[in-house]
Amino acid sequence: MCGIVGLYLKNSVLESQLGELFEPMLIAMTGRGPDSAGFAIYGDEVGDDMIKLTLQHEDEHYPWHSLAEILEEEFNTAVSVMHNANAAVLKLSAEEMPVRAAITDFDDSIRIMSVGHSIEILKEVGLPQQIAERFTLSGMKGSHIIGHTRMATESGVTMEGSHPFTTGMDLCLVHNGSLSNHNRLREELKKEGIQFETENDSEVAAGYLTWRLREGASVKEALEGAIEDLDGFFTFTVGTKDGFAVVRDPIACKPAVMAETDDYVAMASEYHALSTLPGIENAKLWEPDPGKVYFWGKG
Amino acid sequence: MEFDLKTQTVRDVNQALHDLPKDQETEVVVNNISGDHNLAVGMDQPAKITLNGHAGYYCAGMNKEAEIVVNGNVGQGVAENMMSGKVHIKGNASQSAAATAHGGLLVVDGDAAARCGISMKGVNIVVKGSVGHMSAFMGQAGCLVVCGDAGDALGDSLYEAHLYVKGKVESLGADCVQKEMRAEHIEELSALLKQAGCDDNPEDFTRYGSGRNLYNFKVDNTSAY
């Protein structure tokens, strides 16, 4: 099982309602994934010389300002901090890798959920409704968002095994399905320097895409490579800074349905999750073909 | 009789449908469907049911005798294991339409996705659009009529289902072969097209059927398994 939902707004007027439109889509997929849920939202973009990190910690009252002070000192720059439940979004003018190292040095129990100019990843164990409420999803703004509701099959119910998985700057992956060659592939990817935190199969798919993108592949090329190199069942949705991509394995056991109007492009594991979108009754509806990479976005 | 899924549950609707009398034909309309699963499953009486909206999985599954029209799309497994009656989808159908169905008629006005008619056992299926890959896989009996194109591996491991395709076939599955269109096939196809309300010319279709080489295990055929 597992449920996937994605919403890309073509009409920027709706950006202030992104979270409000998306929340019922995520909650509609509770039946497919009641164990954990998460989403990656894109918006509130920072300038090219800055980065934005989403961090999470088990402690709801984690002293993020202490971390910010350390980073301000080390990188000699202002650091803005925005709290959201047990997560924080930090914005600063610095390079990704040194900032990652500084955060881990400060406290290795901080989880770096995402790094980019636009992306924020928030996820947690629990029912989709609880996660939506915890992070006040309905009030969020942005240009596009993808989400996942998980029914755990390949590994335990943990925050680390929850989706979306980050796959690089402003990139993330959600997966419905199960992979059968993930153990061997994980070992091969480790040799390429990709790090893994869990025994989860989807994390391997994320690691695979991270590796391909790092080696210079485009999102389309990386996903076409995934069709060849990943064995098993999958519907993937990949979030990028500009939009999102959808691909299903060639056998296509895992469902996906798409909807498009003048205002948005949406995808979901089941139509049920699209039924609350405005104008859905007149939307163009279709199933993405197996083994084909689709992309919607700016440019 | 009318139902509204904004205020009623699928369970309520299905229970009311199952409670309909078996000796008379009742007309039923269900409004405001929004992807709900298992609608109008297990019918065992001659009702005329209209479903307004897009239905979810297994719509009209196991249907016997009822005539069910969906004014919208349907999810996976529409009319799975249908025994008799008629199911008419005005939009598109997702995967495994009429899977394992023994009888009756399924008409899809749009496209049907992968595995349409998988393991069909006597149902007749008319798809006015195209069908996805592995359609009629292990089809045993009945007819699959496709007015558009068929995806990869049509009729793989086919038994005695009759397949008629008007458009292009991406590829034929193991032991599925093109066959001659004889008078009895034109007659069979004409009747099905008429029942489905299609005005396509039966002469424009190509028939495919079993090569009958995979019925029993032969060691020479190992590579085909």
Automatic annotation (TrEMBL), chain A:
SUPFAM superfamilies: N-terminal nucleophile aminohydrolases (Ntn hydrolases) (SSF56235)
One matching Pfam family: GATase_6
InterPro entries tied to this protein: GATase_2_dom, Ntn_hydrolases_N
Keywords associated with the record: Glutamine amidotransferase, Transferase
Glutamine amidotransferase type-2 domain span: 2-299
Hydrolase as UniProt keyword: no
Keyword Transferase listed: yes
CDD domains registered for this protein in UniProt: GlxB (cd01907)
PANTHER family: AMIDOPHOSPHORIBOSYLTRANSFERASE
Protein name from the UniProt record: Glutamine amidotransferase family protein
Species for this entry: Thiomicrorhabdus marina
High-level lineage: Bacteria, Pseudomonadati, Pseudomonadota, Gammaproteobacteria, Thiotrichales
TrEMBL record, chain B:
Coiled-coil stretches noted in the UniProt entry, renumbered to this chain: none
Lineage: Bacteria, Pseudomonadati, Pseudomonadota, Gammaproteobacteria, Thiotrichales
Organism per entry: Thiomicrorhabdus marina
CDD domains: GXGXG
Protein name: Protein glxC
